[in-house]
């Protein structure tokens, strides 16, 4: 049995940011810029692969079903957990405000 992680269908991601607080590992972060040619006005959220542990806590948090589970091959030589894509340019998200003491 292989591990899992998540991916975001960029065409379906409106950039609403609802999923961000559902990831305890800060693996869901907004891109710094909106890629050219995108149909949505707001920049998308992406999965930072090196931080995603596949807990699937975020699944179900997306109103457009852009978030989906993907299987990670059990063979470490080809696993994206060991060979993640280049880290995208993402914004920093303040997760813990003065009165925020728990995840969403
Ligand atoms: S909840 Fe869905 S649409 Fe909203 S930012 Fe996350 S992936 Fe994109
Ligand atoms: S599967 Fe877990 S670690 Fe990966 S993005 Fe979703 S909540 Fe974060």
The arrangement of helices and strands along the chain is EEEE
Distance between the termini: 30 Å
User: What is the CATH class?
Assistant: Alpha Beta
In round numbers, the mean pLDDT is: 86
- What gyration radius follows from the Cα positions, in whole Å? 14 Å
The chain-level structural class is mainly beta
CATH architecture label:
2-Layer Sandwich
Uncertain residue segments: none
Overall outline: globular
Core attributes:
104 residues; mainly beta; Alpha-Beta Plaits; two-stranded antiparallel sheet; two-stranded antiparallel ribbon; 4 strands; 17% strand; globular; binds iron/sulfur cluster
Helices and strands, with pairings:
Elements (H helix, E strand, L loop, with lengths): L2 E6 L19 E3 L14 E3 L19 E6 L32
Antiparallel strand pairs: 1-4, 2-3
The chain binds iron/sulfur cluster (2 copies).
Describe the structure.
- With 104 residues, the chain is mainly β.
- The protein has one domain: Alpha-Beta Plaits (2-Layer Sandwich).
- It is 0% helix and 17% strand.
- The chain contains no helices and four strands.
- It has strands at 3-8, 28-30, 45-47, 67-72.
- A two-stranded antiparallel ribbon has the order 1-4.
- The radius of gyration is 14 Å and the shape is globular.
- It binds iron/sulfur cluster (2 copies).
- The site of one iron/sulfur cluster has 15 residues, from loops.
């Amino acid at each position: 049995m292989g591990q899992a992680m998540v991916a975001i269908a960029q065409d379906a991601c409106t950039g609403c940011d609802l999923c961000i607080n559902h990831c305890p590992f800060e693996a869901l972060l907004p891109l710094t810029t909106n890629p050219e040619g995108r149909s949505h006005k707001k920049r998308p959220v992406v999965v930072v692969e090196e931080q995603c542990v596949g807990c699937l806590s975020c699944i179900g948090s997306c109103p457009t079903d852009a978030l989906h589970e993907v299987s990670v091959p059990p063979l470490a030589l080809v696993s994206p957990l060991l060979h993640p894509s280049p880290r995208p340019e993402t914004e920093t998200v303040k997760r813990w405000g003065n009165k925020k003491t728990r995840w969403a």
